[in-house]
Design a protein that fits this description.
Radius of gyration: 20 Å
Helix content: 40-55%
Structural class: alpha+beta
CATH topology of the largest domain: Nucleotidyltransferase, domain 5
Largest sheet: 5 strands, mixed
CATH class of the largest domain: Alpha Beta
Distance between the termini: 45 Å
Order of helices and strands: EEEHHEEEHEHHEEEHHHHHH
Shape: globular
């Protein structure tokens, strides 16, 4: 058995996901999983950091260390659930928490925190991290990373498959018949705008089961205006994050917002996620047809 741990906290900024897998040749077997919410202090600190994009070095160091501590806790719980020992783990792959992602321009860079060195020291297990940085240094977008896994799990020689991942940001992977190498990119916002809107108006962290969105009505004019955003029209490869899709993005539509109720805006934001995924799949399909 060759056990590895994958460790991730995503753009939803709601907690930590961890999994143990057995990797043998090109076969991957899921052994155990564990999800753990952030402590209230850490969640608040991360949300404020990502939203405001300003922080002192002391605060950054504190958040980096606290996140590493909670990563380590999650791994401890995962190993306990799996009824194995730390010595059984070959290595941990820790993506970290993205706090800044700038895939375009003259100074392209991406920043993830959750000190891999501290996780390794806390657990006495080898840790591999900073997966995005070399890709960006080599001209890539640094995200999404999932297409490599999706190719292993879902690729079939006789057909093409699109795999959708919905987090704070939505991304899609294309694998299969026409893809010797997988293709993946971010399609746009998934939960990030929806979560921010319900927090503003109902002080809730998320719209559970989409209940609030289901109670409203789609506004076709607002959806049409939102879909004109340059990001959705930009060809792949592309990636994005909360640096772009956040509460400030609403300002582009403030005149329309004035004539609408908050519930209908939530409904339309939910439709936006679905519409941008459909648009991305259509755009990619056209590149194959041509």
């Amino acid at each position: 058995m060759s056990y590895y741990i994958g460790l991730l906290s995503g753009t939803s900024v709601d907690g930590i996901d961890a999994a143990i897998v057995d990797i043998n040749d090109r076969q991957l077997t899921l052994i155990e999983t564990h999800s753990q919410v952030f402590s209230s202090q850490l969640k608040s600190n991360l949300q404020q950091l990502i939203k405001k994009q300003t922080i002192s070095l002391k605060q950054l160091a504190d958040i980096d260390s606290l996140l590493a501590f909670e990563f380590s806790q999650a791994v401890e719980q995962l190993i306990s659930k799996a009824k194995i020992t730390k010595k059984d783990i070959v290595a941990i792959g820790s993506h970290g928490q993205t706090i800044f992602h700038q895939p375009d321009g003259n100074h392209r860079n991406t920043i993830q925190i959750g000190s891999a060195h501290m996780v390794a020291a806390n657990l006495n297990i080898k840790v591999v991290s900073h997966f995005r940085n070399m890709d960006m240094a080599s001209g890539g977008q640094g995200a999404p990373l999932a297409p490599v896994l999706h190719q292993l799990l879902f690729s079939q020689a006789n057909k093409n498959t699109a795999v959708i991942n919905l987090g704070g940001i939505s991304n899609v992977s294309f694998v299969g018949k026409d893809y010797q190498q997988p293709i993946g990119f971010d399609t746009g916002p998934a939960n990030c705008l929806i979560d921010e809107w319900i927090m503003i108006h109902k002080q809730q962290a998320y719209d559970e089961s989409g209940q609030w969105a289901q109670s409203g009505q789609l506004n076709p004019e607002l959806l049409s205006q939102m879909l004109k955003d340059n990001y959705f029209l930009k060809p792949a490869p592309k990636s994005t994050g909360r640096e772009y899709f956040n509460h400030r993005w609403y300002d582009n539509f403030k005149e329309l917002f004035k004539s609408m109720n908050a519930t209908d805006i939530q409904t339309t934001l939910s439709h936006l996620t679905a519409a941008t995924i459909a648009l991305a799949i259509e755009q990619q399909s056209n590149t194959i047809d041509n």
